[in-house]
Amino acid sequence: MGLGRHALCLFVCTLFVLYSGLYAILPKSNWEALSMPQGVGSPGGEDERNGRGACRSTTSSEEGVWTEIRASEDLVWTDCYQGKDKRMQCARLLVPLNYSAPLSDSNQASIALLRVPSAYSSSHPSYLGPILFNPGGPGGSGVDLILSVGDLLHQIVGKEFDVVGFDPRGVARSLPRVDLFRDRVERAMWEAGEGIVDPERERGVFGRKLARAGVIGRLAERVERSGGGYLRSIQTDHTARDMLRITEKQGRDKLLYWGFSYGTILGATFAAMFPDKVGRLVIDGVADSENYFATLWSNNLIDTDKTMQWFFDSCYEAGPSNCPFYASSPEAISQRLTKLYDTLKMQPIPVVDPLSSSTGMVDYPFLRTAIFTVLYKPYAFFPALAKALADLEGGNASSIWSVMNSAQRRFRCSCGDDEEHAFESISDATPGIMCTDGKPISGTLEDTEAHYREMKNMSGWADVWANIRVMCSSWPDFPRTHFQGPFEGNTSHPLLVIGNTADPVTPLWAAKKMSKGYPGSVVLTQDSPGHCSIAGPSVCTINYVRDYFQKGTLPPEGTVCPVLSPPIPTSQTRLGDENQFYTSFGSLSESSNLPLCL
């Protein structure tokens, strides 16, 4: 790669980070920077929900780990990521790329796995087996999840288990990896053209989105031709089969599993395909699998406005000393935010940051995207959001802008050889999985606008969500021979189904619907906002999850678990923060970084 090409990539990376930084996930460290003293550290995590980032960093130690792991038809665990208080092991398992044909050199995928091993050997009577985890997505990395919170998950389920994360086929360290672009320069130039838009104020938004989806579809066709046809095998059906293969290679005949978000679709698929292979199966933050496989994405926002209402209510209850965006009632706080939106629509706030030498503006779509992201983890982010909104109202965008600067520092735009970045997570697996899973959809402007109107009637957040379905409008029409339902089965052990009362993207309604297909399953309701149970601190929920894995017991029908505190603590709830569980659970909630779309 010549010097000019390097310079071009650096330029494009810089443009991208400046103008679309808040499409990135907002890690705990970014928001804590708004309210904590400088120098307070926090665990890292997946940088992005929607995968919009020209360059992601990969450490040399990360590269060294996975280049040394040899893929095998058997699970061979190797010590890796060794450090203080770390005891992790890595493996690569060879599985058939297409399960309709036997494993061979031309029909194989390599699945990357990471585990925190049990305190007991597999032959010890106290050993209870491996629990597989999926963080969501589609396209989320299970290896990243275990790197981030594996020890905390171990504390929840118990040291009798191995805690195992895996990168699903097509994702991150698993091979072949879905990668639609020829090189990093091509990817950076493409992603620099994406921006934050408001469909209510900008004409032609959906036409532009459809055109970009058309480009992605053509790139997928190019990869399918040149890559030996692997894209059609990157789907949930085969990943469920991979989980069974992983389980059997560890000497077990039944799956132990905890799946979040999209991971609930994977879990429901496994339970329907292999009902007699269920040992323990928790689906947490449950999506409507039928809606997903129909490529509708139309009922995710049923409870999103409830999640936003929790911000208004908890801000009011916390009072002006604990919530800088306080007003005389929850309704008044909502009106205060609406007024701020209206101001930003007409007058975005410029930012010139001398510390980072960066410039830009905070406008309405920017803020909408930031708030929607915060709804995933209210207990981690609501207090800092209140401060950021108050600052914005006063014309000071530095609090929000610091999020962009933190994200920018996490990118590495060296744009060197592709081998340098062989283990980065990139966004292509998201459409690669969900569009191959789902039914083909119309790519017409009329259909797209009608879908947006349907979403808008359900929730005020349709402007943020409607783009997801558009991604599949021009995806190649692969043969749909994989499993797409029905989602039902008389499982060998009943499922534990968990839903929050105000989950922004997987409503409690979906948990109750999916539970009906699996006799004996129980819906455990957690009375909290946020995405998945780990978004809120509940001793009750954690105890039921632990008992389910260790003893196989289920909570009584209709159980509703409380949480320890409101999302914005009051003066009284702050006094209880010395509670050890609250501290540990806070680390889990803030570090987990479950990815979008789900």
From TrEMBL:
InterPro entries: AB_hydrolase_fold, Pept_S33_TAP-like_C, Serine_prot/Carboxylest_S33. Residues 461-561 form the Peptidase S33 tripeptidyl aminopeptidase-like C-terminal domain. GO terms for molecular function: hydrolase activity. Residues 1-24 form the signal peptide. It holds the Pfam family Abhydrolase_4. The chain crosses the membrane at residues 255-274. Residues 37-60 are annotated as: Disordered. SUPFAM superfamilies: alpha/beta-Hydrolases. The keyword Flavoprotein does not apply. Coiled coil: none annotated. Keywords: Hydrolase, Membrane, Signal, Transmembrane, Transmembrane helix. Belongs to the peptidase S33 family. This is Peptidase S33 tripeptidyl aminopeptidase-like C-terminal domain-containing protein. The lineage of its organism: Eukaryota, Fungi, Dikarya, Basidiomycota, Agaricomycotina.
